[in-house]
Amino acid sequence: MKAEQIQTLHPIPGKTNKRIALEKYEVIKAQILAILSQNELTHTELMEQLYTNVKDTFEGGVQWYGETVKLDLEARKVIERTRSKPEKYRLVNKSGETGLEAP
């Protein structure tokens, strides 16, 4: 039986993102949210920390899945880019809510 899939979103209107395994999406999403709950990080810092956290247990390209899920979380307004130089990523809602729950 094929693994359950999720259609990820892209923050740029008109662009489509990838369909990926829901299980892998959830692992990467949880890691990104945990990492960003501690600090605002540049893209490179975020991807390096993500890789460090999951490299021993995650099957697949960590950077590729990380980028796909990061874009999806941006599109869903769960994380955002700062306007600082260099640009950093942060959680939109510091309370830990993901913005995916019903109001």
Highlighted features:
103 residues; alpha+beta; Arc Repressor Mutant, subunit A; two-stranded antiparallel sheet; two-stranded antiparallel ribbon; 4 strands; 12% strand; disordered C terminus
Distance between the termini: 34 Å
Tally of strands:
4
What overall form do the CA principal axes indicate?
globular
Structural class assignment: alpha+beta
Q: What fraction strand?
A: 5-15%
Major β-sheet profile: 2 strands, antiparallel
CATH class: Mainly Alpha
CATH superfamily: Winged helix-like DNA-binding domain superfamily/Winged helix DNA-binding domain
What is the name of the CATH architecture?
Orthogonal Bundle
SSE order: EEHHHEE
**Percent of residues in helical segments?**
25-40%
Question: Can you walk me through this structure?
Answer:
- The protein is α+β, with helices and mostly antiparallel strands and 103 residues long.
- The protein is 40% helix and 12% strand.
- It has one domain: Arc Repressor Mutant, subunit A, CATH 1.10.10.10.
- The strands form 2 sheets. A two-stranded antiparallel ribbon has the order 1-2. It has a two-stranded antiparallel ribbon with strand order 3-4.
- A hairpin with a 7-residue loop joins strand 3 (79-81) and strand 4.
- It is globular, with a radius of gyration of 13 Å.
Which helices and strands, and how do they pair?
Blueprint: E1 5-7, E2 19-21, H1 22-36, H2 43-54, H3 62-75, E3 79-81, E4 89-91
Antiparallel strand pairs: 1-2, 3-4
Helix pairs in contact: 1-2, 1-3, 2-3
